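Lab channel / #folding
Pinned by the channel admin:
"Please post every new chain as: sequence first, then the structure tokens as a reply. Keep commentary short and put observations after the output so the thread stays searchable."

First post following the new format, from NK:
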Amino acid sequence: MVNMLKSAFLFLVSALCFSICFTTVLQFALWLYGTGFSYTTTHRTLETDDIEKTIILHNLLLILVFVIQHSLMASDYCKHFFTMCKLDVLQRSIYVIATCAVLQVLMYYWLPLYTDHPVWAFDQRRNILWLILSLVHIIAWLMMFGVILVIDYGELIGVKQIYYFLTNSPPPMQMKSASNRRMFDNFRHPVLLGLLMVLWFVPVMTLDRLLLAIFLSLYTCLGHNLDTQDYEYLQSQLQQKEVHLRTQYSYWYE
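Reply from TO:
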């Protein structure tokens, strides 16, 4: 009976994690699109400078909360804590749920900073330019979605860990090679290029959007520690994939 309840609880956690992650990513994508493709000017007053400083500090605090949560819960200390509490199977799911919660807070409490002169703002009557930038956003999100599928979406959000635990299989990370584990330890975010495209390729760059773009770009870029050994591993994996696909192609068309 206890095992059945435990299995049901873990299943509910994995289902909750999947639904929350999917919903939050969709909302985040729409939110990023909205902040980069809309603009409203405001007239300056004597109190404008003080208000702008308050808004900047407010938004910086939100970014700081996200960075602290994202870094702290991904640290070895936090992972060791979950292991000590015998909750290591839920570590990734809890991490994803917490990240989604912080992102929801950031989106809900984020304050736009509209001024008479944004960093840049292309004329909305230039439909071709806006269309091109919209297509860039679509391509960037498709790239990120594709990368996530390639690196195993289930493991990324913690669902696979729970499934392996319920089927009495070893943790998925233990079944990976040492080179693979080393690469992911040095690789902060698998969707770096797509995220940078979404943050910077916008027709309207307001001050608050610039603040978000700078700090998220620095946070993701500075966390990468990939070296020659990781590059050689990726190159060897690509070559193996090419051989495998070539073999399959030959088999089907013989």
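NK: Confidence is low (pLDDT under 50) at residues 42-47.
TO: also worth noting, The longest strand covers residues 120-121.
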